[in-house]
Design a protein that fits this description.
Blueprint (H helix, E strand, L loop, with lengths): L3 E5 L23 H11 L3 E3 H5 L25 E6 L6 E7 L9 E6 L2
Antiparallel strand pairs: 1-3, 2-3, 4-5
Length: 114
């Protein structure tokens, strides 16, 4: 089947998905075993839509309410749009709509050309 699975995974997969990776290396959500789970997930037939289209881009989907993190863009990318590998060639765009400020998360968005 062709699937799009979206949600709050609560894991920042790579160092590019988190502000201050060195300072957060022992924090839940960025632990080595959690990141390895994400690597296995994305190696088992699923593609990270955003990272596929933007291999080096830094955008976040969550910011702590503490220390004015959102205003200073000190966030984590923990909300993902995963597509089955048979859909990755249909990906047109994926981004984080961080101007939507209704919670500590922002909306994530994907466009596919089916």
């Amino acid at each position: 089947p062709k699937l799009l699975i979206c949600g709050d995974y609560n894991i920042a997969h790579t160092e590019n998905d988190i502000h201050n990776p060195k300072g957060n290396k022992k924090n839940s959500g960025f632990l080595p075993e959690e990141r390895e789970w994400m690597t296995q997930w994305f190696s088992s037939g699923y593609t990270d839509a955003f990272r596929h289209l933007h291999p080096e881009k830094t955008e976040y989907s969550w910011w702590s309410y503490r220390a004015n993190a959102r205003a200073n863009n000190k966030g984590w990318r923990i909300d993902y749009l995963s597509v089955t590998d048979n859909l990755k060639d249909t990906l047109v765009e994926s981004r984080h709509i961080n101007e939507a400020k209704h919670s500590d998360h922002c909306a994530v968005w994907v466009k596919l050309d089916l």
